[in-house]
Amino acid sequence: MDQWNEGLENKAVPGGGALNAAFSEVWTAFEAFKEANDQRLAEMERKAGPDVVTSEKVDRIARSLDEHKHAMDQAILRLNRPILGLANGVTTKSDHASAFEAYVRSGDDRHLRGLEAKAMSYGSGQDGGYLVPDELEAAIGRRLAQISPVRGIASVRQVSGAVLKKPFAVAGPATGWVAETALRPQTASGTLSELQFQTAELYAMPAATAALLEDAAVDLDQWISAEIETAFAVQEGAAFVNGDGTNKPTGFLHYPKVAEASWEWAKIGTIGTGVSGALPASDPSDVLVDLVYALKAGYRQNAAFVMNRRTQATLRKLKDADGNYLWQPPAQPGGKAMLMGFPVVEAEDMPDIAADATPIAFGDFARGYLVVDRTGVRVLRDPYSSKPYVLFYTTKRVGGGVQDFDAIKLLKFGVA
Q: Are residues 68 and 104 part of one domain?
């Protein structure tokens, strides 16, 4: 245990007291979880089933472990969040940023109108508003990548139009081996098709008091980004998983699913557990091995598991043939938990374990899923709808969908 504590100290983050404390609590809870779960497994071997008290203890420690992991994630976000306020009240801002601050604080849009006209802005949304400064848009994008689970592992592309059209090769050109001086037969031309990713409007409406807007020490750019980041992340996170493509992105679980043995393009391959709504009673980890190796080697190098915390709690109890736990806590503050050597991404919008559900995804999401961001985040100041508060109707356009159907596989809790 002393060596374990020493290892934690070596992984400490300078200046991250709350983060280091949360990281230590995660490992402490995991050690307690392993001890309690080992007792539960031993009781199962000695008699028909584990003691009820022991099972409740395991579940209680598992919930505590989830809470400590969540606390560590929040500490990471707090460390990465820009500080509200300007150093000594002095800062250097671009003309656009200064004009935008004047608009947010007082509603004075004269300078913003002039700047956007000069820049020949590509148009205003149907509800009006003004583009936020580039630095604020970049800050929002960085924060969303940290707190939106799928965005953090997917490919992200910015576009200026409403639709991204991406060609892909259905069948490549004919190739073959020839001798150095032999004739080269003409190759067949490749067959191309096209994927389309439509962007849809995502909005949030933070509210401010007059006191906040009048306080010159508060950086309103950072306040807006902090207020809308969670709202945007929750909405787009749900759409990237389950979205139906109507006025929102298409989630990877919305596409047709088919057993891996019958996989074809435009469908997501599945591996069955062989048991309806559960893992096999004997060697349950084997189905996870089958899921991992259903993915081609080129995709496995950057692959990750995606599941919600309840599914993760179930897999946390599994061991391999040598008695080692398949799930391991993050190796360092800010890291991800690992399952069978692959990172685990926690997405609460993934379904729970149930009959014929697909609660576990595994794949190279950077190659498999594409997030499309239309350039520009708009803010409309509304001091009238909820007086005495001032509302800021903030919109951005986001799309998404699967771009490589061979890069993502699902574990189906069913017979086939």
A: no
Comparing C-alpha atoms, which of 284, 274, 272, 255 is closest to residue 407?
255
Do 356 and 416 belong together in one domain?
A: yes
Q: Is there a single domain that holds both residue 229 and residue 251?
A: yes
Q: Are 210 and 362 in contact (CB under 8 A)?
A: no
User: Which residue reads 């995991």 in tokens?
Assistant: 30
Mean per-residue pLDDT for 308-318? 90
**Residue 52: helix, strand or coil by DSSP?**
helix
* Containing structural domain, residue 28: 2-80
Closest to 80 measured CA to CA, from 364, 334, 363, 336? 334
Measured distance CA(323)–CA(76) in Å, rounded: 32
Average pLDDT value for the chain: 80
**Residue 234 Cα distances to 64, 285, 347, angstroms:** 23, 31, 10
Question: Exposed e or buried b for every residue in 362-401, given b needs 16+ CB within 10 A?
Answer: bbbbbbbbbbbbbebbbbbbbbeeeeeebbbbbbbbbbbb
Per the listing, tokens 């929102």 go with 248
Confidence of residue 352 (pLDDT cuts 50, 70, 90): very high
Q: Taking the model in full, what pTM does it have?
A: 0.76
Instruction: Pull the structure tokens for residue 83.
Output: 């500080």
279 confidence band (pLDDT: 50, 70, 90):
very high
Q: Is residue 327 part of a domain?
A: no
C-alpha separations of 297 from 98, 292, 306, 366, 389 in Å = 51, 10, 18, 15, 55
What is the per-residue pLDDT for 186? 67
Four-residue CA torsion sign, 231, 307, 44, 33: negative
Distance of CA 401 to the CA centre of its chain: 14
Q: What is the 3-state secondary structure (H, E, C) of 208-256?
A: ECHHHHHCCCCCHHHHHHHHHHHHHHHHHHHHHHHCECCCCCECCCCCC
Residue of higher predicted confidence among 60 and 412: 412
Please give the share of the chain, as a percent, with pLDDT higher than 90: 36
